[in-house]
Structures are given as C-alpha cells and as structure tokens.
Amino acid sequence: MTLLVLADSSDETAVRFTRFASDRGVEAVMVADFDRLAVTVTVSRHLTSRSTILVDGRPPVGIFCRGRLTSSPPSAPSARFAASEQQAALWAALALWPGPVINRPTVYGHPPRLDPLELASSTPGIRPAGTITNGRDATGNHAYRISCSTQLDPAARDMYDVVHLTQIDERRTHQLLFAGTSTFEVSGPTHELDLAHRVVIRRWLQAKQTDFAIVTVDTCDCPNGELRLLEASPWANHHQFRSVEDAAYTALLDRLAR
Questions:
Q1: What is the per-residue pLDDT for 257?
Q2: 28 burial class (0-12, 13-18, 19+ CB within 10 angstroms)?
Q3: Containing H/E element for 117?
Q4: pLDDT-derived band of residue 93, with 50, 70 and 90 as boundaries?
Q5: Structure letter (DSSP) for residue 250
Q6: Distance between CA 149 and CA 134 in Å, rounded?
Q7: Could you tell me whether strands 227-233 and 126-128 are parallel, antiparallel, or unpaired per DSSP bridges?
Q8: How many Cβ atoms sit within 10 Å of the Cβ of residue 94?
Q9: How confident is the model at residue 7 (pLDDT cuts 50, 70, 90)?
C-alpha cells in the first residue's frame, strides 16, 4: 500500500505526515515534481471518465494534495506552456481519480478556494468579519491582501493594497482543525465551540471537497449566538496544531487508507 503526498520539498507539514505514516508501517512517497508521476485522463463523448495516476510506476491507494507542484519558472515561452499543461493534466487527474484524495482539486480551485465571505453570506448563524478596503480610515489588527491572500501588518499597507481588515480579540477566538472526518479545537477559550456550528462549517468544507483545513472564528457579542468567521484556509501547518498533531495525522491516514 502506497500513499502519494504531493507537496513542495519545503513543506514541513507534508514531511512530518510522510514520516508519521512510514513510522506506522504505511509507505508514503512525497513527490515535489513531475519526474516520478504518470497521469492519464480519458473522457468519452458520453461524459464518462477514467483517471490513472502512477508514482514510480505504481498506483497509490490514496493521495494527500498539498497544492500545485512547483519548480523554477521556465524562461522560454514553450517551456512555460508545457509546465502549465502539466499542471492542468494533474488537476484533471486528481479531480477525476476514484480513490481518496485529501483536498481534492475541483472547480473551486487547486488547492481549494475557501472564501470566508462566501460561507458567511450563505449560512445562518455565521456572519462575515471585517472590511474589504483600500482606504486608510478603516481600523483593525489583522489584514491580508485580497490579491494573494497573504497576511501583512495593517500599519504597513500602502494606498494600492486592497485588504480584508479585521479586529480580532484572541480571548474569544476559536481555531478549529478539520482533518479527515475529525474536528479538533486547537486554540481558544476554555469552553469549546458548540457542535451545531462545527457541523455547519464541516458541511461547507465537504461541499468544497476539503478534508484538511484550519478555520478561525470568534464568539462576538452578536444576537442569537452568531459567530464571526475570521479565516478559512486549506494550508493547515503543523505549528498550528502541535497539541493534536499525532491525532490529526491518524485521522488523515484513516481517510486515505479506508
């Protein structure tokens, strides 16, 4: 039984998961480029499809997808085109592959695109947090650029930055890790978030075919016990869930080897 971990070699979380699986007798192969992969996607005129993925010539039983494979950007236009075609082929193969895939690429992106504002606008009991702005008058202690979803110092943004700006109070902030079919509260107040809110968030993640994500909410002073959704990301990193790291990797293994 072989698990395929698609991740850049600098992804320490992928490295740690691969080591965890190997320590438990499950062969896990971490691949950072296309040299060891072979993919075939066949779609008929009747819209039936077949996807085959091989690593080192062998079919995996499950795939942990940590994002697009990266390499040095080629300089020649023809090489850039070929690299884009490789990424597109892998995207399609992962989307259609019949086995279990953690964070399967879909029409929602590769990796999955998790928009907190989308969930907040479509789900009763959850409200959006913060303001999207390029102005200097809005205040907040947490900001990320809309263009690239990277965090930055709110005081360091310039007049051209369009940011999602939020005021966060850590005393009432809950950070949840969703791994496989398990949910872990990895930081927050002494009381845990209620089950109903966890179920709502998990259903949204399942609709995005996302099995591994970190979600941050706060219990604001809102009517009817509403939550503010601060952040949702498929880039859960090991330093965010150290207290439950082994349990989280076990849940991912159970999802991949079922």
A1: 82
A2: buried
A3: helix 116-122
A4: very high
A5: H
A6: 15
A7: parallel
A8: 22
A9: very high
**What's the mean pLDDT when you consider all of the chain?**
84
Q: Which residue type does 216 have?
A: T
d(CA 191, CA 189): 5
**Cβ neighbours of 70 (radius 10 Å):** 15
Q: Three-state secondary structure along 130-189? A: CEEECCCCCCCCEEEECCCCCEECHHHCCCCCCEEEECCCHHHEEEEEEECCEEEEEECC
Query: Helices 12-23 and 245-256 sit at what angle, rounded to 10 degrees?
Result: 70
Residue bearing tokens 């494979």: 69
Q: d(Cα 38, Cα 58) in Å, to the nearest integer?
A: 9
* Three-point CA angle 186, 189, 115, nearest 5°: 55
CA 102, CA 93: separation in Å to the nearest integer? 14
Residue 166 token pair? 């939020």
Give Dmax over CA atoms of the chain in angstroms: 58
The span from the CA of 68 to the CA of 23, in Å, is: 26
With H, G, I as helix, E, B as strand and everything else as coil, classify residue 97. coil
